[in-house]
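User
Please review the sequence:
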Amino acid sequence: MIYFENEKYYPKNISALTWSEEEFCNCEFHNLDLHGLMFKNCKFFECQFHQCNLSNLSVNYSTFRDIFFFQTKAVGVNWTFAKSISDVKFDQSILDYSVFLGLDLKASVFTKSSLKKVDFSACNLKGSDYRESDLLESSFNNSNLEISDFRDAKNYWIDISCTKLAKAKFSFPDAIALLKVLNIQVEGF
């Protein structure tokens, strides 16, 4: 495995990277278009992705630990193929149509982001942060959302009959969406 530490990558200096069997520690990636590439058995520790396009990226057997994604587009990424993913933070990013099915993502951050049609089913998302994100048609079935923060998030639909929500935070009027599963009508909404 080839090891890189404390490096900064821009479009002009990534040609030497193969994205296979490479380990990155405390590296930064800026303005890269990695659309449709395959990260095969790569390791990313304490790295940052700024304004990158990671859409349709294959993450086969790769590890992501303590990663910050800022204004990054990662549409259609199936994160379940990663070997390991933990301590991820997405801010002002687009993750539409991505899959996190069954992953342990405690205390993950998904703020001010677009999370449309994302599959978070059967995930441990305890203590996660979704503030100011758009969760249109995303699925949280059988997930643990205890202590999670949904304040100022919108378009979420969470089945309260099969999802753990103790001490989760919501804001009004969007919290009314939690009552949809009960098939009741709240007057004025």
Remarks:
- DSSP finds no helices and nine strands in the chain.
- The chain has a mean pLDDT of 94.
- The first strand starts at residue 2 and ends at 5.
